[in-house]
């Protein structure tokens, strides 16, 4: 039987036959089938071929294997029948459980954290993203320096999980890992300082920052592209976007704002990744407004919302930060389901139903964003010399000019703007 272990890492990842296992403890708010579909989607995101999905009822987790001995035997039979080389557990496995399961199943075993780290490792496109993923991987791997699959005497490829255990990594000294992690943190601190300088310059401008957040595959990048005319990768794929993207947009009453597209969240996002990606997600923490994009057609949309809110709290996002929920994928709902959703949305001021794909409701969303950001603005009457073109341009750039009149050598402007902008106008040099 060929399981793919004799191939290089990239070929293995693309062609591996995998079984997805969801140990159902009965405590999750999610439907078991939906959970299996999500994990299968995560596996597909790195080219793994899922040949079977299995939900196992677990009454009491076993310290040695998580699942019961009978379930292990049943799973081993399925692995042999499907000729699978990989088993993905939608759960957190201890190093001992992972090793024992690999021995019993005669297949490579990875858990949910390992799978997500694998995806991030493949998707990181920038130097910063690669540093963050490597740091998260080392943090995860530091507790897993256990010897398994010792008959394989070759190194792991890259810092992924699917290329075999690799003698070098298994035998690596924990001190070396800690040293490497310390160097990575220093490099990330440098990147974070540079990002902070850019953010300070924007705040001095100041331009409001709107951050798109949401569960992975909720449609954030599709909405980002529609609002900005950009071409960020937007596919029906979990974690299609990893590195953040910033673009300038115009809004009603605001000449210039910054829109940020961020990495999608997921339930049980590994704590290592939350910590490593804090530098990237600082745009979310400091945003003036959050637009929470939800896949309203998904059966677990409420549970996904709760997961996103949990991650936002973990990142330190203030609960007082204004936010709008964009109920996306309206185009996938029909009949009573669509009507019920629209009725529910109409009862809430913080919700706008949209289809980022077709554009339905997007204009309403833009208007709502502009209204929220200009909510505290006031009207001012300002008199300038008719020749003061720079002053007139400043008013148009930082406020909403409601009317203007020219009276000889003077121009009178009726402007709505933030009090802070008015103070800046008065003190401009």
Task: Briefly characterize the structure.
The protein is built from 16 helices and 13 strands.
Strand content: 15-25%
Strand order of the largest sheet: 6-7-5-8-9-10
Q: State the helicity in percent bands.
A: 40-55%
Amino- and carboxy-terminal Cα gap:
77 Å
Order of SSEs, N→C? HEHEHEHEHHHHEHEEHHEHEHEHEHEEH
Task: Explain the overall architecture.
β9 (323-328), α13 and β10 (351-353) form a beta-alpha-beta unit. The longest helix is centred in the middle third of the chain and has 31 residues, at 174-204. The termini are far apart. The radius of gyration is 26 Å and the shape is elongated. It has helices at residues 9-15, 32-44, 69-82, 95-105, 112-123, 127-141, 167-170, 174-204, 220-228, 271-276, 282-285, 301-315, 335-346, 362-373, 389-398, 419-427; strands spanning 17-24, 49-57, 86-89, 108-111, 209-214, 245-251, 254-261, 289-295, 323-328, 351-353, 378-385, 400-407, 410-417. Helix content is 43%, strand content 20%. The protein has a six-stranded mixed β-sheet, sandwiched between helices. Strands 2-1-3-4 form a four-stranded parallel β-sheet, sandwiched between helices. It is α/β, with parallel strands linked by helices. It contains 16 helices and 13 strands. α5 (112-123) packs antiparallel against α6 (127-141) and α6 runs antiparallel to α8.
Task: Summarize this structure as a short list of keywords or feature phrases.
429 residues, alpha/beta, six-stranded mixed β-sheet, four-stranded parallel β-sheet, 43% helix, disordered N terminus
């Amino acid at each position: 039987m060929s399981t793919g272990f004799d191939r290089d890492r990239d070929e293995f990842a693309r062609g591996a036959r995998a079984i997805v296992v969801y140990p159902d403890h009965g405590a999750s708010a999610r439907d078991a089938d939906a959970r299996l579909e999500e994990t299968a989607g995560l596996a597909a995101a790195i080219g793994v071929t899922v040949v079977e999905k299995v939900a196992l009822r677990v009454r009491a987790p076993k310290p040695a294997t998580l699942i019961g001995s009978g379930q292990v035997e049943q799973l081993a039979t399925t692995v042999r029948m499907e000729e699978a080389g990989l088993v993905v557990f939608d759960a957190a496995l201890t190093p001992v459980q992972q090793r024992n399961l690999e021995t019993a199943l005669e297949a490579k075993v990875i858990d949910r954290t390992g799978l997500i780290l694998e995806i991030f490792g493949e998707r990181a496109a920038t130097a910063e993203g690669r540093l963050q993923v490597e740091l998260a991987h080392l943090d995860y791997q530091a507790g897993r320096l256990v010897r398994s699959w010792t008959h394989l005497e070759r190194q792991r490829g890259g810092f992924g999980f699917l290329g075999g255990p690799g003698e070098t990594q298994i035998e690596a000294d924990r001190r070396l890992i800690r040293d490497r992690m310390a160097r990575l943190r220093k490099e990330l601190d440098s990147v974070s300082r540079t990002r902070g300088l850019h953010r300070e310059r924007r705040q001095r401008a100041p331009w409001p920052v709107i951050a798109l957040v949401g569960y992975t595959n909720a449609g954030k990048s599709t909405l980002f592209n529609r609002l900005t005319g950009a071409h960020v990768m937007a596919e029906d794929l979990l974690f299609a976007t990893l590195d953040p993207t910033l673009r300038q947009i115009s809004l009603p009453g605001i000449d210039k704002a910054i829109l940020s597209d961020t990495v999608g969240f997921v339930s049980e996002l590994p704590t290592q990744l939350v910590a490593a990606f804090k530098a990237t997600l600082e745009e979310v923490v400091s945003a003036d407004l959050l637009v929470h994009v939800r896949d309203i057609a998904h059966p677990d949309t409420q549970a996904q919302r709760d997961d996103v809110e949990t991650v936002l709290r973990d990142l330190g996002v203030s609960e007082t930060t204004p936010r709008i929920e964009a109920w996306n994928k309206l185009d996938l709902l029909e009949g009573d389901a669509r009507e019920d959703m629209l009725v529910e949305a109409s009862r809430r001021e913080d919700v706008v139903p949209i289809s980022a794909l077709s554009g339905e409701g997007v204009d309403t969303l833009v208007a709502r964003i502009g209204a929220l950001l200009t909510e505290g603005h006031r009207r001012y009457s300002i008199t300038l010399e008719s020749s003061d073109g720079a002053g007139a341009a400043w008013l148009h750039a930082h406020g909403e000019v409601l009317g203007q009149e020219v009276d000889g050598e003077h121009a009178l402007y009726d402007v709505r703007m933030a009090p802070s902008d008015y103070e800046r106008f008065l003190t401009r040099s």
